[in-house]
Request: fold
Amino acid sequence: MVATRFWKSPGMTSFVVAHGAWSAGWAWRRMHTELSSRGHRLATPTWTGIGERRHLASADVTLSTHIEDLVMHMEVEDHDDVVLVAHSYGGMVATGALPRLGSRVRRVIYLDAVLPGRGQSMLDLVAPEARDAIEAATEAVGEGWRVPSNPPPADTSEEDLLWIAPRRVAQPIGTFREPCPAGVEDVAVPAAYVYCTRVGPGDMFGPFAAAARRLGWPTVEIDASHSPNITAPSLLADTLEALSADG
Reply:
């Protein structure tokens, strides 16, 4: 049997999410409604060892595992001509996968995401004190290989905190330690950056937004905290729709 591409109606965009650390496809639940109501489609694969795949967690899970998760999802689901949305740590996964995805991706949007250079790890991209805290917590409460999750943004509602708490789980430290096999210098498709201006301690993503501007990428600021897929889904849908438009 010959595989067939998904039929796309005029004006429809297919989005695929490369989600962030400790999170998973579940965190994008509201965005399915927001984007489908506008005639678009959203796919939200989950990385090995977290979310509904937490039972597969082990010390052997690395960034390469998550890159393979994304590549295999794109191939098995026969995605083509998609806009890849890389959120937070998902910037590592998306950047590492892009050279293998070819024409399946027509545009990448980095959403409050890290922008690795070739050979940089996630731990290379955080402040030294944050790196030390991650390593210490992994040893103290993570059995030497699990990274405990960061708290959600401060403006997350009580109702959402109850939803999030049992679903955010520790992540294998190998995903943070392994260098990315590609970097933003290797991104060969049109790229854009979305910077969430309700910053957390240390404003981790401001420098990445500045780097995107230096690269000449369209860079949009939105009045939201780090997880707008949860706290500001309509605003995020507006932004993704605008940035994914051709032209």
Observations:
- The beta strands are 14-18, 41-43, 82-87, 105-111, 146-147, 171-172, 191-196, 219-222.
